[in-house]
């Protein structure tokens, strides 16, 4: 009888192994994809692309025992050769080829110059040929950093006593309603795709006190802008026993601090590839909604048109204000008008026209909405009534308050937007693997 | 100007802090929900439920300066008292109450005996009052262990050089088709909910060599069984440069080994609450599909009815066989018939009626399907043609092979099923927070 006993050592090496140990003068094997071939006359450089980066292999005409004509860009190969130190090569070494085994070949030449440092093609082209454009070193680095952000989120919250949950994305028709909901048939019933895990994460606060989820959310909004997606990844947390919504903001600040440290430590290579300087997160200013509006209007001589919400341009100006005044990349805007917040938002007892809520702006764009939620059953019923809302379809949500809930609050962070602003991109599609927007359902 | 500077120390303590330091004789504050009140005559025990477990608080009639009548089960409170060692209390300490602050009160008495060790209510009741039933200590422990499984999956794969990806769940109508797909309208186009991230994770192998995703998948199957869900969490990985599909099985074995160690180390309390003995993962037997079928048929005197697939009863018998023969809880069944595997499965060159694929059975049930995929563009076209499949709608998937893909393979693990079998539950709904099945769209 045969058995599986776990991961076996491969006979090929990874870059990190070649860096960690001295293989100079030794013959090794390595696999990768032929990223580019550079003919330098007597010798040629065959550059392999691996998950970890590039490896320079040296081919010497008349010496290396195979023909370079056989090797095509885009082929997956197992190369064999001797390691030599070479300061000008990536990671300080090169491999003098002694053999090559072709594992797989492309069917046609690359349609995009993915082996160039910058591809110089339109975003439209990049997205329509996504599987190819992502093979570019700079393009893929963005998504490695995105991984780091999600890792940071989870690791930080585990450390703070949060429990991860997985809640359903197909949900019953809810009372919140709205036009921005994707609808579907579910075995003869009307169902919807979840706009957020809001009700479920609140439910789970009654179980685990502190919970988080990282998953897809769906918004059928008809906005065609550089900042909207119709499906995105939401980093959500919700925490019980808070003394105020400031605790939620403090937790988000902690997450950002933790994550910047993680990125510096473990994603330095990608930060360097993209030339990114990480933002300051030690001190994040907070400002009340109406004060922020006022400050921006005064300093930049702009008329306030909508007193209940921030227009995108106002987000830009408020960010600019705090960048100029205290060199801050982030700013918490607090106490949004009750009118513009969902029914479950806790109104400010000091002035119920405002809520105990906040948005986090990062370099001119909202990346988080959060706040304290109503935890009292009667207060929730009253608020729903005052808004003319029906309790039908809300029985399960209301149940959590009937049987007791601690004071709690939480937030949702748009992962693609956070990545976008961190990398100083101008379109959220740049930092989305396979964006879904008004016109884009593929790839 | 005010600033957020990160997480602040609270004036309440958590259980882990009370365990890590000696607070004996000191006055502390702690928050939690009143889990139960036990009247013992002169004293009463007020048991607080916290995310980490239970805390015993002692109320002494005529001494403790508040009235116990004011406190209701299900209330969220901040208790104040003096810590005393007490071997019979959870975690070896109790708190002699000196004060209490009610943070929030329930509106009505608990509808389920959530403070009992076992609730003894039907699964139907548990699921219809999910937000309440999950507050039971044993119920929630299942989902803490589920968290550990996902953590183990991610941490192990990070260590093996995998990159996490987030791929869209709303997809264009694909050629694979089938009746088990949820359909929806996407701005006037026909769209579907992803049955699996299969095509996307293969795409990302061309970018990062090794990738994984943990996310929801959707199956409109009309099965009403203890093992089917219409939405579940899939743990998916896909790896390039494999020498054979055995490498995928070896990686899964490594994940299981890593995760059992993690559970033992960090989830011991929950394992103890549920009385779980973890399965052996050091050696997992492998057996060919037809051999497994044959062995089970012979030993248990059962006729083979369907030569192309395993019936649920056969999965049970094959598992039983390997439990009896080599005390194995897991068994890899390999080389499934090509007929029953998707078009992208790599056929066995030695006998193309079979595929280089596998299922992992765990205690009588399939929890994983995986295998090597076709990486050659022409081979894929030929296979699609031989099945009478159209390439229309498959252009983006085919593109990844046109421009070159390394040999690769991967798998998908049903998280709820793995949790179910690990906890020796008999229905997958027991290990799903909010199950979606033929009749259940709420809560």
From TrEMBL, chains A, B:
The keyword Metal-binding does not apply. Its EC number is 6.1.1.23. It catalyses: tRNA(Asx) + L-aspartate + ATP = L-aspartyl-tRNA(Asx) + AMP + diphosphate. Its main location: cytoplasm. It is found in: Cytoplasm. ATP binds at residues 219-221, 227-229, 366, 414-417. It comes from the Bacteria. One of its GO terms (cellular component) is cytosol. The keyword Aminoacyl-tRNA synthetase applies. L-aspartate binds at residues 176, 219, 369, 373. The record marks 90 as: Important for tRNA non-discrimination. One of its GO terms (biological process) is aspartyl-tRNA aminoacylation. Aspartyl-tRNA synthetase with relaxed tRNA specificity since it is able to aspartylate not only its cognate tRNA(Asp) but also tRNA(Asn). Reaction proceeds in two steps: L-aspartate is first activated by ATP to form Asp-AMP and then transferred to the acceptor end of tRNA(Asp/Asn). Belongs to the class-II aminoacyl-tRNA synthetase family. Type 2 subfamily. Homodimer. This is Aspartate--tRNA(Asp/Asn) ligase. It comes from Diplocloster agilis.
């Amino acid at each position: 009888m045969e058995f599986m006993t776990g991961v076996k050592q491969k006979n090929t090496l990874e870059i990190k192994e070649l860096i960690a140990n001295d293989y100079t003068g030794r013959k090794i094997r390595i696999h990768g994809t032929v990223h580019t071939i550079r003919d330098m006359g007597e010798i040629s450089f065959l550059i392999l692309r691996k998950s970890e980066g590039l490896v320079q292999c040296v081919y010497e005409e008349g010496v290396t025992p195979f023909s370079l004509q056989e090797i095509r860009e885009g082929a997956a190969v197992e190369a064999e050769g001797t390691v030599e130190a070479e300061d000008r090569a990536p990671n300080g070494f090169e491999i003098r080829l002694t053999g090559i085994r072709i594992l797989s070949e492309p069917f046609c030449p690359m349609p995009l110059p993915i082996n160039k440092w910058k591809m110089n093609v339109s975003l439209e082209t990049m997205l329509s040929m996504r599987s190819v454009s992502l093979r570019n070193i700079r393009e893929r680095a963005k998504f490695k950093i995105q991984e780091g952000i999600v890792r940071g989120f989870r690791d930080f919250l585990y450390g703070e006593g949060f429990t991860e949950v997985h809640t359903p994305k197909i949900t019953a028709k809810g009372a919140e309603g709205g036009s921005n909901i994707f609808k579907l048939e579910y075995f003869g019933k009307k169902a919807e795709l979840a706009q957020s895990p809001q009700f479920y994460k609140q439910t789970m606060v009654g179980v685990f006190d502190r919970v988080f989820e990282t998953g897809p959310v769906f918004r059928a909004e008809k906005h065609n802008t550089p900042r909207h997606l119709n499906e995105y990844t939401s980093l959500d947390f919700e925490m019980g026993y808070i003394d105020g919504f400031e605790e939620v903001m403090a937790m988000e600040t902690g997450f950002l601090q933790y994550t910047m440290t993680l990125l510096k430590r473990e994603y330095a290579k990608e930060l360097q590839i993209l030339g990114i300087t990480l933002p300051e997160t030690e001190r994040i200013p907070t400002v009340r909604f109406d004060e922020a509006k006022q400050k921006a209007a005064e300093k930049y001589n702009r008329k306030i048109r909508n007193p209940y919400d921030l227009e995108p341009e106002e987000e830009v100006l408020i960010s600019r204000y705090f960048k100029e005044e205290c060199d801050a990349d982030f700013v918490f805007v607090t106490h949004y008008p009750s009118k513009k917040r969902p029914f479950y938002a806790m109104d400010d007892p000091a002035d119920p026209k405002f809520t105990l809520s906040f948005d986090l702006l990062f370099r001119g764009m909202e990346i988080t909405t959060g706040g304290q939620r109503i935890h009292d059953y009667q207060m929730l019923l009253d608020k729903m009534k005052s808004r003319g809302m029906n309790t039908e379809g809300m029985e399960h949500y209301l149940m959590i308050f009937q049987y007791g809930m601690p004071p709690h609050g939480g937030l949702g962070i748009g992962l693609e937007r956070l990545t976008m602003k961190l990398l100083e991109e101008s379109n959220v599609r740049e930092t989305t693997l396979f964006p879904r927007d008004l016109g884009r359902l593929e790839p």
